[in-house]
Every structure is written in structure tokens, then in C-alpha cells.
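Feature request disguised as a bug: please show the residue count (474) next to FtsW/RodA/SpoVE family cell cycle protein in the output. Example input:
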Amino acid sequence: MSVVTNTTTIGAIELPSRRNTELLLLAFAVVIPIFAYANVGLSIHGKLPPGMVAYGGGLAVLAGIAHLVVRRYAKYADPLLLPIGTLLNGLGCVLIWRLDQSERLQNLAKRSFGHFSESAPRQMMYTALAIALFAAVLVLLKDHRTLQRFTYISMAASLVLLILPVIPGLGADVFGAKIWISVGGFSIQPGEFAKIVIAIFFAGYLMVKRDALALASRRFMGLYLPRGRDLGPILMIWAMSLLVLVFENDLGTSLLFFGMFVIMLYVATERTSWIVIGLVMSVAGAAVVGATASHVKARVTAWLDPFACYTKSGACEQVGQSIMSFGSGGVLGTGWGQGNSDLIGFAANSDFIFSTVGEELGLAGVMAFLLLYGLIIERGVRTALAARDPFGKLFAIGLSGAFALQIFVVAGGVMGLIPLTGMTMPFLASGGSSVLANWALIGILIRISDTARRPAPAPAPSPDSEMTQVVRPS
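Example output, currently without the count:
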């Protein structure tokens, strides 16, 4: 006698979404800035700040909205990106509010503009708009691969964004750098958005051309040099970055623009020669422009010896004050609200806000912030490795590389490692363009990570295998 049993096809194993982990981390990401806010108020005024409840509640609501959007539209996304972005953004608002309490900056604003207005409330408004943009990216961008269709459109759009600040009547010259446009009383920095748009073009272009770019014609000193006709793309990008540097006096965007392309080119082709060629070309271009452009030359002079021209140049004074801020902070810092980084002036809450971290939180605080930034970069690289399509891999590594380069040039500039670039520290510095662009970047990385971690659908059952006869002996 035998027994016949029916078995059905087993579906795909459900992977954990890690959304509860994200929610727990978000709770810490909201509580830590609230404690920091209370610490600043107690340190400066001797009492809890009156807006602590409103600030904490607002940050919690924004974080909750972002979490619900991720839970609904990107269920399998990386659980660390949103909490780290929230923590950095929340601490950035606290740092800006701390500098708003400085009597020196208040008096400086009154002497220069006739009035003083706090930057922290505007930063919270920009944060709310950034979370709305973050949610829009996840809701509207169902699949990151659709962006590949706009490869050459994104190239044109990025060129427009880079050209806008030099158009007379539209661009604004701020302390020698032409990186802003003024629209309806609001100032926008197009370069912050250009880094995302140009990454779409680089990813789409290199995905198609990587085989040709990987070919080598000869070997010289251990390096495989590319064919002459394949040098065209990197020469074009190099020339465009130099034009940005010359016409906008913007060293930061130029380095970011060219460096991101070289990183993506190396990842696409796996040729070390592209890295060497890119470094040589970037150093050569920066050296030529630094010797001829007055604005860049002043920053190079301030970098070489800021105390030699301390009383003669504003750039030297800012770098000198920044270096002294880091030095006076020591290992553990002077404490929230107990530093003097406001002596830097107007740039204290934008270009040089990291100096406040170095003075009031010390080396330990600086390393903690750099570790948080490093985690975002690491999760971006991990997302690139996990992505199943070449466009997603290149796009994720391009965004991560651009983010890493921005951290390097800003931190290196305020610490005196490299010349000042005029860029702002992501999530920390005051300014709407930066926080909007970086939350959009986080949203795109979350979308790519969701696609990469989402389990593959179970194969459709075959009619021939719907029923399997298992014969057991009686």
C-alpha cells in the first residue's frame, strides 16, 4: 500500500525589514539633540531654554513622518541612514542656536545690517522642507533605474545649475565667491543640487562606456595608460571644473565635481591609472588658478601661513581663529556654549561651524561627528556593493563619493589641512540649499538600498510541478 501526498511550491523567505531597529535608533537620534539643546541653555542662560519642548516635539514629528514614509515606501531600506541624518541635522540646529545666543554675532549683525535675526528657526523651517523633499523622493521615485533614462538631460541640467551663479542679475557675489543665486529674496546655492544631478549623468555614461575606458594602450612605470581618444571625457570634465573655479571662484565645487567623476571612473574601470591622472590634473589646475585668481590666491596664502597675514586679510583671520578654536578645545572641549568660535564672524554658523564642534566638544566630539559621517559613507558604499544593476552601483558610489569629498574639503579647510573651499558641512551648517540637497541624497540612497535588499520574488509555479507524488512504502 502506498500514500500519495500533495506538496506546493515554497515561496521566497521573508527577510527582516529592520524598520523597528530604525525606529529605536531614531528615538536616540531625537533625544540626544534635545539634551544638547538643554545643555546649551543651562550653560549660557543658567536655565532650560523656553523653546526646548517645541524644538524636541518638532524634531520628533519630522523624524516620525520620515520613518513612516520609509516604512511604507522603502520597507527593506538600510536602517542606519535616516537615524544618522536626523541626529546630525538635530545637532546642527543646536549648534546654530548656540551661535545665535552670541552677543558678539548679534552686535556684528546690528552694525552691518541694522538688525539681527536668529538663524535657528529658519534652519528648522528648512529641515521641514527637506523632510518633505525626502518623502517626495521616496514616493515618486519608485525605482532608481528610471533615472538612467535622463542621462544626457541630467548633463544639460547640471551645466545650467553651474552656470546660473555667473549670470548677471541672477548670481550673487558673496565674499568673493559666485556660488549663489537670488530669487524672490531667497538665496539658493545651485552647486549643492548639481552634485546629485551630475552623478546621474556620470553613472549612466560610465555604465555604457566603461569597457572602452578600461582599455589600455601602453604601460608606463607600472601604470596602464588609457588610449588617447579615451582621455576625452576626463579632459572635458577637467576643463569644466576649471571653468567653475575661474568664473565662480569656487574651489570646493570644482574639487567635488572633478573628484566625483574620477572616483566613479575608477570604480567603473578598475584602472588605478585614472586615479593618478585625475590627481595630477587636479593639482595642476588648482596650482594654475591659485596663482592667477585673486580670491583663490588669498585662500592659498591664508592656508600656507594664516598668522603671517592675520591683520591684513579676512581669510587669514578666519583660518587663524578656526585653528585656535580647535586648539583651545583640547581632548574633551570647553563644553556646550563655553567656547569663543563666534569670533570667526558671520561664517561661524556656516563655513566654520565645525570649529564650534572642535572647541566646545573637543577632539572626542570631532571624532564622533566624523564617525557619523563615515557611517553614512560606509552605508552608501555597502549599498553600492549590494545593488544588482550597474547603474545603481555607480550612482550609489558617486553619491557616497561626493558626500565623502565634501566632508573632506570642509573639515580639511577649517582645520588648515587644505585651503578653504567655501562649502558647508552637510546637515550642520546654516543654509537651506545644503540641508535640502543632502536630505535628497539620503532619500536616493535609501531608495537604492531598498531595491538592493528587497528579496527577489518567488518564481511562478510550473503546472508540471504543482503536484508532486511522494510514494511511501506501506
